[in-house]
Design a protein that fits this description.
Blueprint (H helix, E strand, L loop, with lengths): L2 E7 L3 E8 L4 E8 L6 H15 L4 E8 L25 H9 L2 E6 H12 L7 E7 L3 E7 L2 E2 L31 H4 L1 H13 L3 H4 L2 H5 L9 H9 L3 H25 L3 E5 L7 H15 L2 H6 L1 E4 L6 H14 L4
Parallel strand pairs: 1-4, 4-5, 6-9, 9-10
Antiparallel strand pairs: 1-2, 2-3, 6-7, 7-8
Helix pairs in contact: 1-2, 3-12, 5-8, 5-9, 8-9, 9-10
């Protein structure tokens, strides 16, 4: 049975796993990225890692990377975070030159969605949207097992959908972006601002206790934990964040008419305290009713391995192996 090597290129570590056509991980390893040495050195280290992990039946390499690689050529169209000279670098051609294996690369968020489609929360679904709720909000779409990239491979920037015409300025240059209101970072920021204003409600809340009375220590996890325990102050904060999130999710559901929407990232780990709120708002009119009714809303299930599993699936596609 053929297998592939899936690679996750991170700012700190490079992880690799050998995966067979059934999605079983046959072996794995990791090394430090050492991004400061430059992209050329990073790729040589990646090739050494691939050669350590590969087996006699390995047919291809799939790479998940921050930034935007061209999925056809494997050349980096935009810079991978923390690797300053990566833009324009021929990632896949260089890796193929060293290892002799066919290589393909895609954005790590896209491959996380592909992994969830193949073996995770969206297994067997038709059209899948993934929202990753972390420092920002990442987005991805998989249609019948293929990642949707958009005209110039920059599609599915879900976190930068405008939900407030006169809202907060986003680092992307736009105004009122979804991630400024509904990401884990945004919920934590709103909690710190609300607690800093003080008042009896704030100081009597469970959230105040969780942050030890220091508003600057509050984060989204504390908000979710307190809301789960019925704390009214935290519940109001989370309600607001989920109102915004449902507005963004619902708008994109109306555009894509998905069969499944996945919430991933740190805030999704809170489970139904977030998913339940978003589902309630979608059903109450944040999405067109027939579309909302027909779409599942689920939490991601593959965790840190989603990108590796997706990279493996992508590698099999590159090698022309049906899985």
């Amino acid at each position: 049975m053929p297998d592939v090597v899936a690679v996750d290129l991170g700012g700190t570590n490079i992880r690799a796993a050998r995966v067979d056509a059934a999605g079983k991980v046959l072996g794995r390893d990791k090394i430090s990225t050492l991004a400061e040495e430059g992209m050329g050195a990073v790729v040589k280290r990646m090739a050494d890692l691939v050669n350590r992990v590969r087996g006699p039946e390995t047919v291809a390499i799939g790479i998940g990377t921050p930034g935007t690689p061209d999925p056809d050529t494997g050349v980096m169209k935009s810079r991978a975070v923390n690797i300053p000279d990566s833009q324009g670098f021929p990632l896949c051609p260089e890796l193929k030159k060293i290892t002799g294996l066919t290589a393909g690369a895609d954005n790590d968020g896209n491959l996380a969605a592909l992994g969830e489609y193949w073996l995770g929360a969206a297994r067997g679904e038709h059209i899948v949207l993934l929202f990753t709720l972390g420092t920002g909000i990442g987005g991805a779409c998989v249609i019948d097992g293929l990642v949707y990239h958009g005209h110039s491979n920059l599609g599915t920037e879900f976190g930068h959908v405008t939900i407030d015409l006169n809202g907060r300025k986003c680092p992307c240059g736009c105004v009122g972006c979804l991630e400024q209101y509904a990401s884990a970072a945004a919920v934590g920021r709103d909690a710190r601002e609300a607690l800093a204003k003080g008042g009896k409600d704030a100081q009597a809340s469970l959230l105040w206790k969780l942050c030890s009375g220091d508003p600057q220590k509050a984060d989204a996890k504390m908000v979710c934990d307190a809301a789960r325990d019925g704390d009214a102050f935290a519940s109001r904060l989370l309600d607001t964040g989920c109102d915004y999130l449902a507005a963004g999710v619902g708008s994109l559901m109306n555009a894509f008419n998905p069969s499944c929407v996945i919430l991933g990232g740190g805030m999704a780990l809170a489970g139904d305290v977030v998913l339940g709120r978003v589902r309630k708002r979608l059903d109450a009119g944040r999405a067109y009713a027939p579309i909302a009714r027909d779409a599942k809303l689920v939490a991601a299930t593959l965790g840190d391995d989603a990108g590796l599993i997706g990279a493996a699936r992508f590698a099999f596609q590159k090698a022309g192996v049906r899985v």
